Amino acid sequence: MKMQQIIENVRGFDGVLVVAPEAGSAFPELSWGDAYFYHAPDGRMPERTQPYGTIITKDYPDDTSSDLDAPGRFRVNIHVGRERASGLVSTEAEPAEADVFHRHPLYGDAGWVCVIDPAEKTTDAVLALLREAHEAARSRAARRKR
To answer: Can you give the residue ranges of the DUF6194 domain (predicted)?
Structure first.
């Protein structure tokens, strides 16, 4: 599945805000080309809330194990919770292997999973988990509001 197809799917969620920094924007250059998913029904980026999902398109200085600097590669990152993450990740996969669930290289302990270049084996699960993560973010926002 292409990155843009995932972004368009997520844009269909109720109350979603997709932040996709572009060259020349006010966002740091390192984030250009990436995408960040928030529950934000008012359309404004939350100040004290992390995204529930992201797509990154390049290696970051402290995160190079996915080999994302190779042309056309990207990684979908999703917060699923610690318990759920343990049942999803492949312990047999190489760190840069595509189309398998990995523990996020930096935030795996916090319940984040990732998939490099989702394809036949993972696309449906990635989209379902992004929807679940969105609903969980919506529920958290409702609890904070009460």
So the answer is: 1-145
CA-nearest of 104, 101, 105, 84 to 92 is 101
The pLDDT of residue 36 is 98
Q: What is the pLDDT of residues 73-125, one digit of tens each?
A: 999 999 999 999 999 998 899 999 999 999 999 999 999 999 999 999 999 99
- Contact predicate 116/106, CB 8 Å: no
Please name which of 54, 70, 40, 71 lies closest in space to residue 145, comparing C-alpha atoms: 40
Q: Can you give 28-47 as a three-state secondary structure string? A: CHHHCCCEEEEECCCCCCCC
Sign of CA dihedral 126, 51, 21, 9: positive
Report the run of H or E that residue 143 belongs to, with start and end. Answer: helix 123-145
User: Angle at the Cα of 13 (from 114 to 134), degrees rounded to 5?
Assistant: 45
CB 85 within 8 A of CB 113: yes
What average pLDDT does this structure show over 3-26? 97
Query: How do beta strands 112-116 and 101-103 pair?
Result: antiparallel
